[in-house]
Amino acid sequence: MLAIIGGTGLSQIEGFKAAGFKRVATPFSDKRVVVELYQYGDQTVAFLPRHGKGHVIPPHKINYRANVWALQMVGVDKIIAVNAVGGIHPDTGPGNFAIPDQIIDYSHSRAATFFEEDLEFVTHIDFTEPFSKELRSELQIAFESVNTTQGGSKLLLKHGVYGCMQGPRLETAAEIKRLQRDGCDVVGMTGMPEAALAREIKLDYAMLALSVNWAAGLGEKEILMSEIEAHVKEGMGFVMEVLKNFIDAN
Length: 250
Ligand code: HPA
What we know:
Elements: E1 2-6, E2 17-26, E3 29-40, E4 43-49, H1 64-73, E5 78-87, E6 97-98, E7 102-105, H2 133-149, E8 156-157, E9 161-164, H3 173-182, E10 186-188, H4 194-200, E11 204-214, H5 225-249
Parallel strand pairs: 1-4, 1-5, 5-11, 6-8, 7-9, 9-10
Antiparallel strand pairs: 2-3, 3-4, 5-10, 6-11
Helix pairs in contact: 2-5
Bound molecules: hypoxanthine.
């Protein structure tokens, strides 16, 4: 089963038929994780808003382990993560998209592995390619099909490096210059450890990143929350169309 992990601006799924939810107990929290289920066409899709309903959990407080574990418990084998990001690459201005193929993790102090306790042996996953190639290419096809139908106004960076910062504050201009020197194309706060946890338990994972602002120091003015919100609102309708197209085709 496919799961969609919704980021900022995607805390509910519109246009899919609600099909209940599962409250999943995990070893990583006293609270159960609520995984919503939806019907689209003949498929059941799981949905998990990573910031909680109503966007209340900041990036560094998300229980990534409980979330990813819960998805596997309900039978998920592939995940599309939707992430709002700041644009660094010239083609990733607000309203444009990226399907990254690499990650640099600058986050810290997050519970970032399932392989911590009660180990029979120390486990290192191969993370050379952090995202699923197949899912990325299917996502790209879905994106291009929707974009063409809608007039082709969105740019898509088909590869790119996602820099994961700790947040919740946005970056300084110098931090973004450093990310630029490191080769980052977009910057966000929630791609890690989510992607690595998915790999640890062998779930396919790809990210659809929506740029909602120029990263710090790259725009003409300071970053306004009102502009971010407007781009989130505008972009998520497009994201839903891409997800529908993806599900129809797969
Ligand atoms: N930086 C980090 N995370 C983000 C940004 C940003 O500029 N915009 C949206 N998420």
